[in-house]
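Lab notebook page, bench 4
Experiment: in silico fold of construct C2
Operator: M.H.
Input chain length: 173 residues
Purpose: comparison with the prior construct
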Amino acid sequence: PDARADARFVDNPYVTGDPEVRFYAGAPLVTPQGHVVGTLCVLDRVARRLSLEQREALTTLGRQVVRQMEMRLRLEREGALYQELSRKTKFQQVLLDSAAASIITTSADGRLTSANPGAERLLGYPREELLGLEVISTLHVREELELRAVELASELGRPVPWREALVIRPLMG
């Protein structure tokens, strides 16, 4: 209530000189891991006492400060992870673009999602025209897939749809 009468603060330069602190109340800032990282404090030049409601409000504010600090740290970590992912993605793109081999990727429903320059050269189309095409019917001859499906059906002992001839083994796990 009165810093001049408290042994912890009686010779503190902020109490004995400018700004002449008389009142001090603090709430420790404790992380969820139990680390004390500081104190949220209220100062005044006039001696006073906090009511129970004011003490509870100060404690609540202290917890909110810790939550905000934790959120900021989390956002900073996520930002750093995003930067690292972005850097790795760019590096992977450089590798794909410089590869002599033809490399394509597809979505789960079989649509072409990326093609490197090697694929463009092999297929004879620019990447923009390839993206979104259904790979199975665009890049493969249906009759060949039907023959492969018959071979696989015989081998696996069950019917294999021609559209699954290239992916049946991975689908089976």
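Observations: The chain has seven helices and four strands. The helical segments are 13-16, 52-98, 117-123, 127-130, 135-139, 142-156, 168-172.
Next step: discuss at group meeting.
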